Sequence to fold (151 residues):
Amino acid sequence: MTYSIGQVAEKTGLTTYTLRYYDREGLMPFVKRNQAGRREFTDANLDFIDLITCLKDTGMQLAEIRHFVELAMQGDATLETRLNIFKRQQQAVCNQIKQAKQHLAKLDYKVRYYTAACDAGTEAAVSGDCELPGQPIIIDNQLRVKKVKAE
Fold:
């Protein structure tokens, strides 16, 4: 089965502009054109576009993706080189995950900190070290602001 660029955009979530841009940038030399010059995508093309999207979403630059596509078009002679590209990208994603976990830990702490400050009515009552996200948050009850009930 073949798909139009609009159908591919709908299936992939990419815009037709992005798909045309990727084609111009040499990321989709595998896409054939019909007699009218329109792109005709296959299921295999959709799988490859999904891979391109994966690589892009994990931080790989378009030039690197183009290089990978060129290697893939050369066939089995480039298998080892392509494997090494994926190993490097895999390591890059592992590093991104590690950094994201560190950021999440800091954000978790800040949510706890500001929740405590809101409950206390002031930041002055709250103590704890933001650089140590695992540390407890301490509320000094003497500095707590009494909330006045609205009538």
The first helix runs from residue 5 to 12. The longest strand covers residues 32-33. Residues 1-74 form a domain with the Multidrug-efflux Transporter Regulator; Chain: A; Domain 2 fold (CATH 1.10.1660.10).
